[in-house]
């Protein structure tokens, strides 16, 4: 496997791209109310796509956060192939959103999620718009969005840790008109989490996945790769009810699971990654993926071949390998407020420390609706990993309610059944085996012989529940920038076998959040 190391070859280039994007946005903002979008004279350019709704990595979430690679604005300088209207009779600009040829059955920018995943077309959007100087304005539609969360994170109980940290991502993309029925898109997504996370990862009780220092991460969320997506896509309509798309990413997001958590409008404010992330949407950073799919009526069916190994510990590298895995996903949008889906993936050797293939099954339902001065969004997600080392199963219900423009309530209820929680965690706090060993030594010292303990030594699954409730308020809100302050608290349902290790923890986070102004 070959690793292309951006520490040596591309780091300065990528930082330059980010700086140029921000400079372009600052000098030529396009999200001012009253501007007219390309190809839709009746809509406001104040439309855009939610950095979560349509958000890898994770502003509290994976950067793979941003728009669907199929995201972007409609490339048409005039009306689109259906006169500016959705091929199913709805407007391509759902309630003022920008149209996009990549936007699923409603041809709406609001429906763009991570990779080729869709969120409800009636989702909120936060972004900046800009033009490239070397392309005609009527043949391009470019945007940038992202999120930066700066937090004091206090994970409670015997295994908890605290930290000052930042979860963040920034994405820039352009959609270019090829013809009245076709377009292509380029996109890049980046995060500074390799530098803004504590050693070992962001503390998070009961979280697990990937490695640090050759050791499996437990009780922390790993940082995401500096380059979370570099992708290109093409789409073409063949009839009024049928269009196909092709997607290539090094890295990119595959046809596997729901939109990545940071791109779901229901998780817009929540800085915590779901505990069942690796059974739901862990494929949002895939080091080599090719996808092909089509939209027919209100359905989207897509298939991917990809490199199955998860990113390594070098967060500045793109670990290129063979296309040894595959996945398929079916999505259905009965109305502009709903996105439903199910997927299957066969992933070859995803974890370096646990050789063996994984079969993943997911199902999800996303709802979102905008209203005057706010929006409401709810998601339900279920996923199950089957592998020779055991199973990982998790489900959640999460939601965000934005009201009176600046106020946000958010929450998540989640249960996950996962292995590996009884050992020493990534911060060195002892696990169940250490406690059992100490008790056994005391037992021997008391002269009670060498009976074996019936407690398992780090083996088996544990069913854990987590319940988060939070609030945020925008202390500054303009057409170009929003700054919010918030806090949340998490309670847990800890199984009996983990009580000795974790106790009865309560965790909380204090958050400062910065993102673009609301476009729609």
List the helices and strands and how they pair.
Layout (H helix, E strand, L loop, with lengths): L1 E4 L5 H17 L100 E3 L9 E15 L7 E18 L2 E9 L2 H4 L5 E11 L2 E7 L5 E13 L2 E8 L27 H4 L8 E8 L2 E8 L10 E4 L4 E8 L5 E10 L10 E14 L2 E14 L2 E14 L3 E13 L12 H14 L15 E17 L3 E13 L5 H4 L3 E11 L4
Molecular structure report:
The structure is a single chain. This protein is mainly beta. It has a domain at 2-137 and 175-196 and 222-403. The chain contains five helices and 21 strands. The strands form three sheets. The protein has a 16-stranded antiparallel beta barrel. Strands 1-12 form a two-stranded antiparallel ribbon. The longest helix has 17 residues, at 11-27. Mean pLDDT is 81; it is low at 1-92, 436-441 and 450-458.
Which structural class is indicated by helix and strand composition?
mainly beta
**Which geometry do the CA atoms define?**
globular
Number of helices: 5
Total beta-strand segments: 21
State the helical fraction.
Answer: under 10%
Low-pLDDT windows of residues = 1-92, 436-441, 450-458
Percent in strands: 35-45%
Distance linking N and C termini:
43 Å
Overall pLDDT confidence: 81
């Amino acid at each position: 496997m070959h690793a292309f190391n951006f520490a040596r070859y591309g780091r300065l280039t990528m930082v330059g791209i980010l700086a140029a994007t921000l400079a372009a946005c600052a000098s030529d903002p396009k999200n001012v109310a009253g501007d007219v979008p390309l190809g839709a004279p009746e809509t406001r350019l104040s439309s855009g796509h939610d950095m979560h709704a349509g958000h890898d990595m994770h502003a509290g979430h994976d950067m793979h956060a941003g728009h669907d690679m199929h995201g972007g604005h409609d490339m048409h300088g005039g009306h689109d192939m259906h006169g500016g209207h959705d091929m199913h009779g709805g407007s391509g600009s759902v309630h003022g959103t920008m149209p996009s040829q990549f936007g699923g059955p409603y041809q709406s920018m609001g429906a763009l999620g991570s990779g080729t995943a869709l969120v409800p077309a009636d989702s909120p959007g936060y972004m900046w718009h800009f033009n490239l100087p070397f392309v005609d304005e009527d043949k391009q539609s470019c945007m940038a969005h992202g999120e930066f969360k700066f937090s004091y994170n206090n994970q409670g109980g015997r295994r908890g840790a605290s930290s000052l940290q930042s979860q963040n991502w920034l994405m820039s993309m352009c959609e270019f008109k090829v013809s009245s029925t076709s377009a292509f898109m380029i996109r890049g997504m980046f995060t500074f989490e390799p530098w803004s996370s504590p050693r070992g990862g962001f503390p998070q009780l009961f979280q697990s996945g990937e490695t640090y220092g050759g050791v499996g991460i437990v009780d922390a969320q790993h940082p995401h790769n500096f380059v979370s997506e570099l992708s290109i896509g093409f789409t073409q309509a063949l009839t009024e009810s049928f269009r196909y798309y092709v997607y290539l990413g090094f890295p990119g997001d595959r046809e596997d699971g729901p939109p990545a958590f940071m791109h779901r409008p229901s998780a817009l404010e929540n800085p915590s990654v779901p505990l069942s992330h690796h059974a739901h949407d862990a494929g949002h950073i895939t080091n080599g993926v090719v996808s092909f799919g089509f939209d027919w009526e209100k359905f989207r069916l897509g298939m991917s071949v990809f490199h199955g190994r998860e990113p390594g510990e070098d967060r500045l590298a793109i670990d290129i390998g063979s296309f040894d895995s595959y996945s398929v996903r079916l999505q259905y949008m009965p109305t502009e407020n709903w996105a439903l889906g199910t997927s299957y993936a066969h992933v070859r050797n995803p974890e370096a420390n646990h050789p063996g293939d994984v079969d993943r099954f997911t199902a999800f339902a996303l709802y979102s609706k905008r209203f005057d001065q706010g929006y409401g969004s709810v998601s339900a997600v279920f996923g199950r990993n089957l592998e020779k080392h055991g199973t990982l199963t998790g489900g959640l219900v999460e939601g965000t309610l934005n009201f009176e423009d600046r106020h946000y309530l958010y929450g998540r209820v989640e249960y996950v059944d996962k292995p590996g929680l009884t050992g020493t965690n990534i911060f060195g706090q002892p696990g169940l085996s250490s406690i059992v060993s100490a008790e056994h030594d005391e037992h021997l010292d008391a002269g009670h012989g060498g009976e074996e303990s019936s407690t398992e030594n780090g083996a088996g699954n544990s069913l854990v529940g987590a319940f988060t409730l939070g609030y945020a308020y925008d202390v500054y809100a303009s057409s170009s920038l929003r700054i919010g302050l918030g806090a949340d608290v998490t309670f847990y349902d800890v199984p009996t076998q983990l009580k000795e290790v974790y106790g009865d923890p309560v965790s909380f986070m204090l958050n400062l959040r910065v993102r673009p102004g609301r476009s729609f």
